[in-house]
Structure formats: structure tokens, C-alpha cells
Amino acid sequence: MLPKVANQLFHHTHRAVVAVQNQTGHTLRNVLQLQSSSGSSTAVTGWGSSVSSGPGHSGPGPSKFHASGRLQTSHPQGTPISTQVGVRVEKLSAFRVPSQRSQHLAADPTSDASQLIRSGFGTYATLINTLTDRDFENHEAVRRAEARLRRRRRAAIDEGLEEEEKRIASLRGDSHFKSALALFQTAAVNPTSKFPLQVYNKLLRSCAIHSNVDAASAVYSHLEKRGDIYPDAQTYISLIETYASRHDLNGAESMFEQFKEASRFERVQWSFDAVAGHTSPEDLSYRQRASQTAVWNEMLTAYFRCGQPTEALGLLEQMMDTSAGETFHATDVPLPTSSTFARAITGFCQLGDVSTALAWFERMLQQDSPSRDPHATTRVPHRPDASTWTTMFDALADEGMVAEANRLFVRWQIIASQEGAAVWSDHRDCVLAANLRFMDTRTDLDQAKAHELLDFLTDHVLPWDIESGHFTFYRDTSRSLCQRLVMQYWNRGHTDDALDLAARIATRQLEVIRHGQAQGKFDSAQSQRRIEGTRRFATDVASEILFKTGPSAPLSSFLRLSALLTDVGALVPTALSESCLNAYAFQRASPALSLSTKDWEALLDIVVANEADSSATLNTLVDDLLMHSVDITAFSETAKNHLVRSLASNDMNSATLLAYLGEPFSSRLAELQRASQTSPSVQPQSFEANSPVEDIPGTPLSSSYSSGRVDTAYSQHVGEFYPGGNKISVLTAFKRFKSGAGKGIFPRPIVLARLISALGRLGEVEKIHEVYDAAQVVLNSLDTVKQWQTSGWFLIEDHMIVGLAHAGDIEAAHAHRQRILQQGGVPSADAYGALILNVKDTTDDTSNAMALFTESQNFGVVPNIFMYNTIISKLAKARKADYALQLFQDMKAQNIQPTSVTYGAVIAACCRVGDAASAELLFQEMTSEPTFKPRVPPYNTMMQLYTHTKPDRSRVLHYYNELLAANVQPTAHTYKLLIDAYGSIEPVDDSAMEKVFEQLVADRSVSVQGTHWAALINAWGCVQKDLDKALAVFDSIATHPTTKQNSSPMPDAVVYEALINTLVTVRRMDLVPPYLERLQSSGVHMTAYIANLLIKGYASVNEIERSREIFESLQDPQEGVAAPHNHLPHQNKQSNVLPVPAEAPVYREPSTWEAMVRAELGNGERERAVALLQRLQARMFPPAVYQRISGIMLDDSVSPWSDAPSSSPGFSS
Asked: Which regions are flagged for Polar residues bias (predicted)?
């Protein structure tokens, strides 16, 4: 029999060791090697006889324990292996850091545990202890996690619930108890096996956790057979709890009776876990009484758990009516403790009888003495302790008894103050959650009562002290509940109260953190977690308010939200910044505008930080600060620094404002004032015409037509091209116009206006002016009918805006806009749409476009679909997705049906900021529209999102297949994206990439372009670092069949850029010169983006002088104008624009300055980098551009090969 037992023991020991290894690391790995090594020592000892074998043994049984030679270990003479194993297991188990608590075997060599270690059972005792400790720790972790789940659900927090539930399931899936029980059962087969009481109790504790009555019975039976050890109170507590957890009241009562019987015969040790630390002789009486009462308390709980409150109260009455005196007697009915009454209240709450629980709780509140020791017996009940308050608040909250919870909370604050106790954060969370849920469900609640309740929560439930350190936002529940409280104020119309409360809460959080740091309560990690929680609170409040109100909130509200975020160190989101700027644009002219100093500071922060905003917005703010006589000396130091850094020193208004700060700004103002007296002032560039209106070609002053008449039939003849005329029909209409005009016959003004805008779309500027000249004759002929003349004049001027804007003569278009405005009129939505559409080639296109849109709204222009499409497209290119979506919703609210162009633009906006969820929803909405006409741009946009922004090849292919299913022809850009998807998204699929290129070549509707070759070179060179393959692809371009069919020279600038990027990536700058020579000799114009890569590459190989030479060889474009000749070659479609001559100058982009600054810093030349920034500032770039580049100076990790934006837009993959 012994070999079989030994096999079982070895098997379960191995499982136990593996389980312990999971908690202690791999340090136990050699324990079983030592135990099962071959040699002269015993394989398993401690059974009363030795089972041994020599090296040559080949018989059955013990030979199974022999290990291979690599596991053999020599041991000191005379040292039993089992003893070494036991000592090693115990020491290694002590290395494990328990999550809750851990109790190890006694180190006293005379203790029972030490004797067992020497006899062999100590190893298993240690393992069982460790496994059951871990089981209990898991149980406690589950209990805490379930409590968190209840709190989060009560607080209506959905975030993180699924992860918490998975964690609970994982903890419950651990098999520590099974392994411990298997070890015990195997060892218990030996009649001489003995374990300390601690092992029995820990096993019984696990039995209670798992409601395993059979296992508890087996463990207790083994203990009962021991004549040398008695159970203690903890033994019976666990047994009663085990039966009660199965609702087996008879079993629980049986254990309780056995306890009382054992007490009569003095077969009980008076101890249990909660008083295990009371070991001194003077604590003996306390420990005995507390242990006895603990068993009775457990039986009280068992009655409640089994649904028998009457029996529970009967037991409690016995305890309250006991005649037990000061001297402890084992047979006495014990006096209750404060925990006894707490268990009764908990029992009623668990049964759902909250009213009865509340009645008992109220009776306890009437007592005079506070609760101190939960285990000290007393004849007079004490007031509830903090944990009992928690139980009561939880029950009231779950039952929706809000009034009772609020009343008790006020009482608790008074009592806690008297007793010097702390009101726990759980208590506040619970009362807040109950009230907020009540207000969410009671939409019919009277406004006055609702406001009163909100004020109660603010003044009484939220804490405002900073000393305690409680209720900080490291707790998601507290943060979320505070956010909901703020939004209750806001949603019920108390917006100022909401913003006041948000600011008070954030301020208090920061003060608590500072106080905690000063007092040493919070370390850096704890402080940072609380700071992040506070920032999350401010960000979520601002986002929710912005979502609720949109752009309609007052400017002061937006500014207060911005100040809230700034005060806690959170970033101001783009949507809020834009809302502030738009509200400012709308409300700045209002006489009711009244901003506080803090509001002006917040507005300054937004203007300075907004990348899309031009210096014109800052100048406008300066004008308003002067107009409203704002005292900037009262600004914070941060705000003053913003002004000093951002304002131009050569602007009179800026200098006037800064002069309030004293020297040296006062002297600068005086200098400018002297200069202004001797030279004309220079106005900033704007939409105003640079030439007088009279100088505009086509005005009546230079008309080639003197007189004529308007003919209705002739009007119809000329106007046949409208609507929807193509190029031929429009030019035919112009010929008819010319023919009639030569005879003095003209169409009506509406026909002339339509012809002007149609010619503009064809780029026929001279023809536009000729028609405009004729229109003046027509208008003069209407002199006797002023109303018709006036309306005709506005019509012609409006269409001149449209035609000239589409033709690219944007300056002349703005001149006609000014003529309309000067005459008290307003351009049409089509005119503004055309102006917005053709804002291009400036250093700040989006701000200029937004200025036009804002102007149109100020004048009351109702946008049409064309105007919406153009402004949304501009916002999309500037990554202003929030405002683009807002305009999209406004458009739908005005019953303007979005087109595929609209959807394409707003989808592009979401894609540019990586908002895949919104983009997918909008795409689905677009395709489900009954009027949907598939166009390629939205499909390409979605493919690009999942190619470059959020790489996911499966989604790229999904939208490609959608494109094919919609019978949409792939474009050159579609193929380029497919090449990138296979060539740059891991894992790279070379064969699929090559197959796509073959499909491209075979597709006669699409020509192979430089972007396709560039994508291949990028895939091989930059992604896979295969330089030879990348060079081979480049060399194959010149002789490829598609190159001969291409009208543009190949390789083009995009291809050269990809090749040089590869050489930079693999640090082979020695190969660059020959390819630059080929570029120049082939007639390809180099771009700034190629220069950027050269600057970066040479700097990375310590050839900074070469980088400087390249940078200085470039030229600067005209101020306020985007650098020409850099973007055109990178378009993904063929263009009729003439190619740029190879000898044309190469103009610097902002990214070129950034690349050079990085190069200097990366080579330790900080002074040179500063000099570059000074040159950059003198170029008058938009503040956002300068701030982005100058911000590199603050980055200590900068290097010439960091991820700077050196490549061309749209090229990098």
C-alpha cells in the first residue's frame, strides 16, 4: 500500500509546488528535483519507515522516484532529504508577498510545526497553508471587486465593468483549494499524519468560502480523531458558516450544539482569527469572551442567511438576557458585542427588510457611548461603527430610500465630528448615487425642490475640508458622481451653479493633493493618480457640457470651462477652443459683452494655443483688450508671458497694450509712434482689395460697349446652357452673346450673371470681364426702373465673385465682395462658398476660410449645400473634426440633404483625427441614403484611415471590396493605398503587393504614377530595410512599359523622395549624390520635402555642414503665401498644370525649418538653432507654426533622425 500512497503524495505535492510557483516565482523549481533525486537517501520519509533504493535498483515501487543523472544532487552526510525539502519549501513560501495577509508556520523549534517539518509532514503543512492563504486572498479580492462592481453600477459607470467581471471569473477559476484539499486527503491516509490546528482551520475557512460541506466534514472528522489537539472558536465559526452558505440550517445548528457541548467539557481553545494577536496573559479573559461571542454571532448570522430572522432575534435575546458575570465560564451564554447588533442589522438588510434594519439602527443611534471595540462585550448597545453605517447607507441606496439616507447622513456627520471619526468616501458615494439616480428617474421633480436637493448634496454630502485627504479622484466612482452632480445643475438650467461647482470641486481636489504631499500622506505616484483623476473630471465635464449645448452657449461659459481645464493642467480640446473662438467672433461686437480678468486670460490662452488661428485673431483680441480697457497688469504671470511671446513688437496696437507692463515695452511704443509720424502705416494683409475698385478690369469706366437693348427671346437663346451646361455649351453661349452684343442686343442680367460664373469655372477670365462690361450697359438701360437696376447690379457683382473665385483670381473676387458690402448688400451663399473653396496657397487657409464663413453668418447668410460642403472640406483638411461634425448636424437640422461630397468631407474630417468609429457610422449612414450615388473619395478615405492612421489591413480590404461591389472604378490613389496596405502593414505580404501592382498595370483606366513606385520603394526600403530591392525597383522605372505611356517624366519627384527616404532610413548617405545628379539631369524639379530628408540624413551621419548648405540653398516664399512648387507633383491624379522647370527655385516649407532646427539640436548646436528660430520669427509665420517649431527646444531627446515631419504630405505610409 505504501508505494501507492507515495505515488499519490508525490503527484499532489508536484501540483501544489507548481501552484505555489505561480505566486512565488521560479525559486521552487528545484524542490522536487531535490526530493526525487537518486542517491543513498530516502525518497520519501516521515511515514514511520524508510523506503529506499540504491542506484542499481530496478524493481517496482520506489524505483519510480529515481530521476535522471542531471537531477542528481549530493547531500551532506546524515541530513534527511525530507527535512531539507521541508525547510526549503517553508522558506520559499515565505518569499511570496500575500495580497491580503499570510500566516506561516512557527519558527520555534519546539513547536508542533517544527516537529512535523523534521518528520516530513511540515512540507505539506507549509504547502497547504500557502495554498489556502492564496485561496482566502482570492476570496477577499473577489469580495472587494464585487463591492466595486456594486458601487460602479450604483454610480451608473459602465466603463470597466466587463474587465472587472472577467477578473472575478479568473480569480474564482483558481484551483488552490482543490490542490490543498488533495494534499490533505492524500496525507490523511497515513494513520500517523498530524497537522497543526492552523492547517485544519485554514482548510475549513476555504470550505466555507466554497460552500463545500463534504470537505468540511472530512477535515473536521480528521481533527476530531486527534486526541492531542482541540478545535478552537475559529473552527466552529468556519463550520457554521459552511453549512449556512448552503442554507443547511440543521447542519449549522448541529455544529453550534457541538460547540456548546465541547465548551461544557472544556474541549475548546478560546481563540479565533480576529483576536489572534492578543497573546499576553492579561488578554486571556478578553480573548475567551470575544471567542465565545464570535461563535454565537456566527450562529446569529446563519439564522439570517437561512431566512429565519425570528430564531436570530431569539438568540440575540438570550445573549442580552444572560446572567453571565465578570468571570468567564465556558458554559455561559455570552454577552453581545457591538458587532452582534451590527450583524443583526446586516441580516435584515440582506433579507430585504430595510425598514426593520433602519429601526434597529435608529435605536443604536440613541445610545450614548460610541462604538470602540467590536469584540468587547457589553450589556448596553453602542452607537453604530463606520462599517455598520456603510451597510445601512448601501441598503437605503439600493432600496431608493433617499430621504432616509439624507437624514441619516446629516446625523452621521454630526456624530463623526463628535467622535473624531472620518466619514468614509463610500458613504458619500452611496448617498450621492442614490440622490442622482432619484433625480434621473424623477423628471417631473419640481425645479425648486430639485435645486434644493442639489444644494444639499453640494453643501452637506460633498466634503470641502482638505485635511482628511478623503474623497479624492483616484476613485472613479467619486469622480463620476461629481461630474453627474455638476451636469444635474447644468441640465436643469442652473448653468452658473454648475460651473461654480465644477471649479470648487477641482480646486478642492488640488488643495487636498498639495496638503497631502506636504503632510507626507501621498507619495509621487499617489499624487499623480489623483491629479490625473482631477484632470479627467474637468475634461469630462467640459466635453459633456459642450456636447449638450453645442456652439450656442454664452462665451463666458466656454471661457470658464477653458479656465477649469487650464487650472488643473488639462489640455483644452479642439472643440472647446473652436466654440470659444466662434462665440467670441459672434459676441465680441455685442455691447453686453462683459468678461472678467480670468475670462480674458482664458480667451488669450485659447487664441495663443489654437493652431488653426491666424495672427489676425490675436490682433483682434488686442484691439478688444484696448477697447474694453482691460487691465493686463492684473493678469497672471502666465498670461503676461503669453502676451509678450505672442505679440508682434512692430504692431502699434500690440505695442500700446504691452506698454502697460512697463519697460522695455514703453520705449518700443514711443519708437513706433515716432516712426509712424514719418512713414505711412502698413496694414496687415486681409481680404480687402489692394487696388481701388475703379481699377478693377471690367468696371463701367473701361466698358467697350456704349449702348444697346435687352431682348427677351435673345436671352433665352443665350441662356440655353443653364443649368448643367458643359464646356462646349458654355462657350457656345458666349459666342451667341458676342454676336448679339456686336449688334447692340443683350440678354437679361440673370443670363449674364449665369454666364459669368460658368465661364469662371472654365478659367476664362478675359471672357468674364467682357461679359461684365456688357452687363454695365444693360444695367444703365434699367435706369428708369431702379428696383430692377439695383437687384441686377447685386446679381452681377455676386456672380463676379463666384466666377473670379473659381477662375483663381481671388483678389479680384474679394474686390467685388467689398463692393457689395459697401453698398449695404451681402454676397450669396454661392459666392461665399466659392471664396471659401478657393482659399488656398496661404500660410493659414483654414483660418481665412473660417473668417469668411463667420462673416457670412454674422450677415445672416443661410448656407446652402455648396457652402456647407466647402467649409466642411476646409475643416476636414485642418483636422477640425468636431466643428465639421457640428456643421454637418446643423445642415441636417435645416433639412438640407447631405450629398456624397458632404459625407466624403465629414468622413475625411473624422479620419484625419483617427475617429474611426464616427467615420464608420457616417459611411454606413451615407450608403444607406436612398439618394446615395457612390463616388470613389469616401471609399479611398476609409481605406486611407485603415492604411495610415489606424493600420488594419482587413478593414482596408473591406472598404476596397465595398468599392467594387458599388461598381466604382478604383483610382490611382486606390491602388496606391492597396500597395501600402500590403507593403507597410505588418505582416508585410510581398506577393499580394506585387499582385496589386500587376493589376494596376493591367488597368487601362488608370496610369501608373510616381506615387505607386514610391509606395513600392517605401515598402522594400523603409519598411523591410531591403536596400538592394528598393534600388532595383527604382532602376526598373525608366524601362518599364508604363513609363513610355506616361506623359510626365519618370521617375518624378515623389519617387526620388521615396528613394532618398530609404537611403536616410538605412543610413547610406554616401549613395545620395549620384541620385541627386540623376534628378537634376532628368529635368525633375527638387522639392522642399526632398531637401528636408537630405538635411535630416546628413545630420544623422554627422555631416551637419552639408545639411546647412542644403538649407541655405533654398529660398523663402513671399510672406503670407504658401511655398510653391512643392505640392503639385504629389497629387494622386493627373493635372493639366504645366510641369515645374527643374531650374526653378526650391522654396522652404515650415517643415524645412523644423528639420534644420532638429539637425542643429541633434548635433549639439543650440545657439545655431536659436538663430534659426529668430529668422523664422522674422518671416511672420502664423504663431501656431512658430510655437510648434520652437517647442522642439524644450525636447531634450531631440535628434536629427527623430520622427520629424520631413516627408511630403500624403507620402509617408
From this structure: 70-81, 675-689
